[in-house]
Design a protein that fits this description.
heterodimer, A: 282 residues, MetI-like fold, 2 domains, B: 270 residues, alpha/beta, Rossmann fold, 6-stranded mixed β-sheet, 4-stranded antiparallel β-sheet, 10 strands
């Protein structure tokens, strides 16, 4: 929820050369102030409305209680450790899942035979809700970080795979012929034409994957384990500690935003050759 | 023997299997024989779908004829080779490379050193009035400039034979005239042999030594016209020549007849 305000800023401030100038530019825009105002209003409503509407704190604690709980958890539950662990799992799951999706996507894209043979199974696996594998992986690998990372890999894998595959499949054949007319080898056609041509699609897949990675990790942690933010969610629920659940949700959102922003930053670097508007908003 | 010609199609036929392999195979071009001497510029005009592009692909070695042979400098063409370069209606500039890097593409694939590539590319860009745009990306350039860059990329390989498939058909009228002149000059000065496919009759006449007319599919050469107008490197001058209108009128007549029976064939494309 709070992310709606954070969301608008990077795209608006991206035009300026230095960070200071970017911020100054952003603050000079009315929309930015309206957006920040919206955040303040939202927090105020969260703080004052539940007591006024006689909603008990175990249903909806005011934001101040959530803050208090945050600092309590820092001391009592070693919140940094849980957050850090979840963050690392998200990064590892995202990176491995993306790499796997890329490798399989390019392989299938380059070999129509392989694609024909494997596509029904890939489709079936894509329809399967990946989070349903979490209990299975925990049965196999125990209460370690591995089943969580495995769920994230599986869930990140598909959007990356599908996007890479479709880009290789839909590339303009005339572009391939151009490279062929220069007597390019198969490897050269891939590295000089197909691979760079797939970058916009790849990043579309990575954007989706970065947010799905968080879901995969959290579900893994919810199902089993005694570490990570997913575990804290279960713990908070068990204790009837609504504020703790909120703290965890907010931290998970922050991790998701960080992962997403990392992809956006990489995308801006890699796709620097594209007109700004085609890269699109954050 | 055949080495007298730079590019030769000898009795070339190309058929394609129709969808799902059923029914009659589609004959794209039938028994086409064309020979280009060194430095000659020959245009092919004809209705759309008459197999002009198929012919060009075979010339570039991207496609093999079903029957007959294609020779470049007397050597049988079986695969793409560095004697032949082509240029299409689409500029096919790679959007992730700047203009210089795009021009370098062919040499890069063939393993030329970076310094050689930059030297050659910079030279060519200066020559094609793109010197200031070497570091620009394709989306920053106009259609005419992009097509110029594509021409530079084609010439960077220093090919003996240039195949051009309607390279200017997507451009506006003024840009087209300027680029035609640039092309005519380059082909003349570098003594390139060129096979030029176009829909534009006055373009064909003003740029070429010879114009060939193809029939509707199965495409075959139905008429050869030698353009006896001087000043090939200057299409502007040629357009003002009194005989220009004569050629154009005659070709229009030829195409008009062909065009009348075209509609039913239009769906299938070469």
């Amino acid at each position: 929820m709070t992310s709606s305000a954070d969301h608008g800023q990077p795209s608006r401030s991206s035009a300026g050369p230095s960070l200071g100038e970017k911020i100054a530019l952003a603050l000079s825009r009315r929309e930015v102030w309206i957006s920040l105002g919206f955040l303040v209003l939202f927090l105020a409503i969260w703080e004052w409305l539940p007591p006024l509407a006689k909603i008990p704190p175990y249903i909806l604690p005011p934001i101040s209680a959530v803050f208090k709980e945050f600092f309590r958890l820092l001391h009592v539950e070693n919140l940094f450790l849980h957050t850090g662990l979840t963050l690392i799992e998200v990064i590892i799951g995202f990176v491995l899942g993306s790499l796997l999706g890329m490798v399989v996507g390019y392989a299938l894209g380059l070999s129509p035979m392989l694609e024909f043979v494997l596509s029904p199974y890939i489709l079936a696996l894509q329809i399967t809700p990946k989070v349903a594998f979490a209990p299975l992986f925990i049965m196999w690998l125990g209460y370690t970080v591995y089943p969580k990372i495995l769920v994230a890999i599986l869930i990140v894998f598909f959007p990356v795979l599908i996007n890479v595959l479709s880009s290789v499949r839909t590339i303009d054949p005339a572009m391939i012929n151009l490279a062929r007319s220069f007597s390019a080898s198969r490897a050269q056609i891939f590295w000089k034409i197909e691979f760079p041509a797939s970058m916009p699609n790849l990043f579309a897949g990575l954007r989706i994957g970065s947010t799905l990675a968080v879901i995969g990790i959290v579900v893994g942690e919810l199902v089993g384990g005694n570490k990570g933010l997913g575990y804290l969610l279960v713990l908070g629920e068990g204790q009837g500690n609504t504020a703790m659940v909120f703290v965890t949700i907010i931290l998970l959102t922050v991790i998701g935003i960080l992962a997403y922003l990392a992809v956006i930053l990489a995308e801006r670097r890699v796709l620097h050759y594209m007109p700004e508007r085609q890269i699109g908003p954050v | 023997m055949s080495a007298a010609y730079r590019l030769e199609f000898r009795g070339v036929t190309k058929t394609f299997a129709t969808k799902k392999g059923r029914g009659e195979p589609l004959v794209a071009v039938r028994d086409v024989s064309v020979a280009l001497s060194d430095g000659e510029v020959v245009s092919i005009i004809g209705p759309s779908g008459c197999g002009k592009s198929t012919l060009l692909n075979m010339g570039a070695g991207l496609d093999r004829p079903t029957a007959g042979q294609v020779f470049v400098d007397g050597d049988l063409v079986t695969k793409p080779n560095s004697h032949v370069a082509f240029m299409l209606q689409k500029d096919l500039l790679l959007p992730w490379r700047n203009i210089l890097e795009n021009v370098e593409l062919g040499q890069e694939i063939q393993g030329a050193s970076k310094s050689d590539r930059v030297k050659r590319g910079t030279e060519l860009l200066a020559r094609y009035h793109l010197g200031d745009f070497a570091q620009h990306y394709p989306h920053q350039l106009s259609g005419g400039m992009r097509q110029r860059a594509a021409l530079a990329r084609t010439m960077a390989m220093n090919p003996d034979v240039v195949l051009l498939d309607e390279p200017f058909s997507a451009l506006d009228a003024q840009t087209k005239l300027v680029l035609q002149k640039d092309l005519a000059q380059v082909l003349w000065e570098e003594k390139k042999t060129a096979l030029f496919i176009t829909h534009d009759i006055s373009e064909a006449v003003s740029l070429s030594d010879r114009v060939l007319v193809m029939s509707r599919r199965p495409g075959t050469i139905i008429r050869e016209m030698i353009i006896e107008i001087p000043d090939r490197p200057d299409p502007f001058k040629r357009r003002r020549h009194p005989r220009m209108g004569e050629y154009v009128t005659e070709l229009l007549g030829l195409l008009g007849i062909v065009d009348g029976t075209l509609e039913d064939e239009r769906k299938a494309d070469a």
